[in-house]
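Need a sequence for this fold. Nothing fancy.
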């Protein structure tokens, strides 16, 4: 008998899962529930728009596997459906001796992860590609690029609908029941529907969603980290040609303030990684007493602050003082200054933290009875979304294949 499936969350991962499920013969119908009026209003519509190819991730991790598969699949998807994208390449810039060593480690990881065309640039080559960048050593990552993930999501919505699926926006899933036949019963106030499976892709609320839907405490806690951007004034766009990234600190999943090109031709710099007092709080002063209390009484976050005081304060400073933000950018392009920028967008990362204060680096997905929960899907979750969807079906929903 064909199966009915509910997806919680209309971000890029929920939509990718819905799209892939809607193509299976065993699946009769797919319904995406999204609490906002439109899909993609949170992380998926507020990111750097970069197609990451797996340079940073520990070989053998889920992130390394799914980002390498994911970028290839995302590019084929964009080619097939005419979604504008640009494989403009990335330059990773080491500015100190320590970073130079770390860059070599990164290049080694990239090789192990199967990246192609990695190459150190000579100073002449760097000057030709990025005349304003100052580096001790620079690594070219030619496979990376940019895409407008909002356009990817709109295409996924079209395809889901063409395959007979439904997208119910403005519809928040607060709780579910389980029928005698062990099916999932969703009640949205005016309507009750029964499903064979539920997949939760709730992003910043993945832990809340786990608790509400399974009636058990989530094994991971989401802590929101806001990422703010500055936008180059149009007359300054010539200062950046590729994606220009620093060598990240391997202790953190955040890649550091970087320069990116957007599909419209704009250039931005960011994001920092500031603890946010509200999960969907996009301004410096966004505040939710309930959510702030929940985060600040979590022992994992308190341990994180204790062990990473300098990092946390540095990021906070970069949120309230633009000079601190620009200082991060100046490390790679010394000529940038405050007059060259206007305020840009902001996004909030859903970052899982363990009770011992570790930031969980890898993707985390678990199945519980008839439910699958995507608990941690930070960057490069957008790049990897189609591969994450296939992985969920292959690993957790084998019976549907
Ligand atoms: C600042 C920033 C920069 C990033 N840069 C990149 C990048 O360059 N490249 C890259 O690959 N990745 C990047 N990422 C990561 C990427 O954006 C995420 O991994 C990805 O978007 C996660 O998708 P998602 O669908 O899980 O989450 P989301 O996009 O957050 O979607 C979750 C959805 O669930 C909905 N929802 C939650 N609870 C409920 C409920 N109870 N009922 C109904 N709906 C609900 C929410 O409204 C939301 O729409 C970045 C992220 C940020 C924040």
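Here you go.
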């Amino acid at each position: 008998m064909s199966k009915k499936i509910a997806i919680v969350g209309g971000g890029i991962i929920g939509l990718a899962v819905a799209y892939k499920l809607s193509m299976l013969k065993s699946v009769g119908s797919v319904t995406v529930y999204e609490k906002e009026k439109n899909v993609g209003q949170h992380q998926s519509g507020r990111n750097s728009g970069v197609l990451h190819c797996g340079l940073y991730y520990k070989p053998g991790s889920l992130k390394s596997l799914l980002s390498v598969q994911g970028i290839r699949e995302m590019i084929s998807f964009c080619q097939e459906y005419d979604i504008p994208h640009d494989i403009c390449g990335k330059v990773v810039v080491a500015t100190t001796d320590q970073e130079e060593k770390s860059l070599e480690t990164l290049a080694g990881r990239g090789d192990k992860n199967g990246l192609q065309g990695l190459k150190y640039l000579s100073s002449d080559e760097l000057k030709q590609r990025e005349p304003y960048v100052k580096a001790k050593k620079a690594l070219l990552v030619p496979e990376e690029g940019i895409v407008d993930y909002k356009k990817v999501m709109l295409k996924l919505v079209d395809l889901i609908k063409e395959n007979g699926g439904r997208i119910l926006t403005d519809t928040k899933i607060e709780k579910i029941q389980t029928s005698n036949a062990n099916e999932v019963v969703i009640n949205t106030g005016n309507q009750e529907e029964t499903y064979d499976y539920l997949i939760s892709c709730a992003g910043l609320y993945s832990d809340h969603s786990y608790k509400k839907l399974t009636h058990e405490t989530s094994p991971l806690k989401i802590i929101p980290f806001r990422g703010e951007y500055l936008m180059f004034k149009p007359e300054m766009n010539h200062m950046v040609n590729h994606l220009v990234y620093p060598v990240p600190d391997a202790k953190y999943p955040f890649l550091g303030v970087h320069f990116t090109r957007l599909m419209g031709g704009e250039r931005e710099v960011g994001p920092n990684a500031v603890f946010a007092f509200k999960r969907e709080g996009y301004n410096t002063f966004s505040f939710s007493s309930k959510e702030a209390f929940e985060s600040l009484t979590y022992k994992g976050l308190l341990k994180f602050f204790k062990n990473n005081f300098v990092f946390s304060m540095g990021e906070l400073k970069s949120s309230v003082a633009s000079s601190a933000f620009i200082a991060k950018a100046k490390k790679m392009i010394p000529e940038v200054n405050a007059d060259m920028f206007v305020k840009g967008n902001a996004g909030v990362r859903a970052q899982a933290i363990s009770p011992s204060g570790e930031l969980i680096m890898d993707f985390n997905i678990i199945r519980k009875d008839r439910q699958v929960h995507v608990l941690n899907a930070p960057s490069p979750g957008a790049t990897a979304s189609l591969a994450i969807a296939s992985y969920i079906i292959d690993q957790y929903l084998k019976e549907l294949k």
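For context: The longest strand covers residues 341-353.
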